[in-house]
UniProtKB/TrEMBL annotation:
One of its GO terms (cellular component) is cytoplasm. Coiled coil: none annotated. It holds the Pfam family LRR_1. The keyword Nucleus applies. It comes from the Eukaryota. Residues 63-123 form the PIF1/LRR1 pleckstrin homology domain. This is LLR1 protein. SUPFAM superfamilies: L domain-like. The keyword Repeat applies. The gene is Lrr1. PROSITE patterns: LRR (PS51450). SMART domains: LRR_TYP (SM00369).
Amino acid sequence: RAARALVSLGRPPGGGGGGGGGGVYLMVCTARDRAGARYKVGTAGPGGARGVPGAGADRLCPQVQHNVERLFTRFVEQGKATVRLREPAVDLRLSKANASDLKTFLSALRLAHQGTEAGALPLSTLVPAKNSEVEKPKTKMIITSRRDYPLTKSFPYSLEHLQTSYCKLARVDTRVLCLKKLRKLDLSHNHIKQLPATLGDLVCLQELDLHDNHLESFGGALCCPSLQKSLQSLDLSQNRLRALPLEFCELRALVRLKLDDNELVRLPCRVGQLGRLRCLSAARNRLPFLPSDFRRLSLENLDLFGNPFEQPNPLVPNIQLKIPLTLSECAARATLNHRIPYGCHLLPSHLCQDLGVAKTCQCGSACLSSFIQITVSMNLHHVAHTVVLVDNMGGTDAPVLCYFCSLRCYSQFLDRHLQSNG
């Protein structure tokens, strides 16, 4: 039966280190048998004895010169190997081992099996395993009070789920940032004001809960490539956020996003890039309208209740047209309309940032700083299957920004709008 075990190679207690008189033993310790079962693998001196497992002690039996019948190492790179012994006739099947450590162990085992004297091998005396070495690694820890928070002890490196809520933490503990196996991190109900950029070093992180803290910003540095690939659920509700960075839309693995009860005055203009997003909640913020890119979302659940949405009025445009167009505007439009590749290796970084937030006209053309902006009403069922009512009046419509690259495009839109409402 499979069990977590510590497998070691060494000399038995009292076996002596010089000349290899005591031979070399392979010992397997488990949580149920920390003293370990011992198997002789190397040659001993004349008249030596070999131990076999038996109730925590060795039973002596006639010496077997070469007790390792065969080593199966085809899958050693995956941390798997099998040691087949002659006496007793058993297979020791190793799996989930560190590949490098397993190779070193097997090399030493081969030397012992080939008759290398125990004194010539860098082996220690075999001792019973510690509890921490054979117990199942702790993968989950939940702390819900400050008095239970560990101040002197480290967090187990094997943790995959860590919750430290109601602990009055003012910052993210640097010890948490060393837990590279974390998949779920819950820091809700604390006093955290700022997130360290190194939070993005948690390459396996799938769920991050920062509900009910004092966050005033979510740094763009957090949207690093590792979190872009792993982070699926993010809860930033009940904080003090006023805006999210443009880089936020690079978190394209997001499936669930909660932004309730903040002070958001806008959503990121490229929010439509979150193609996997299925649940979005941004209730009780200060959103006057939604970005035009919001139309690209395909959600299952959407909650925007309690935002002070403006009444859309297409007849009152915000005109930012520059006639004639500046040279930079012409170049930017041409770059985007013709899909010309660009990057920081070709253009200054501030120009790349400008191109990244370009608007798209109803005709499909791009515009940068020369445009006409209006708000139009959109039924939220166009982007979500289930919609929480926007207000107490039972409405499911919200204002969405709309851009035009020229007077001509805006005039054509007005004609269609007036005809449909005439």
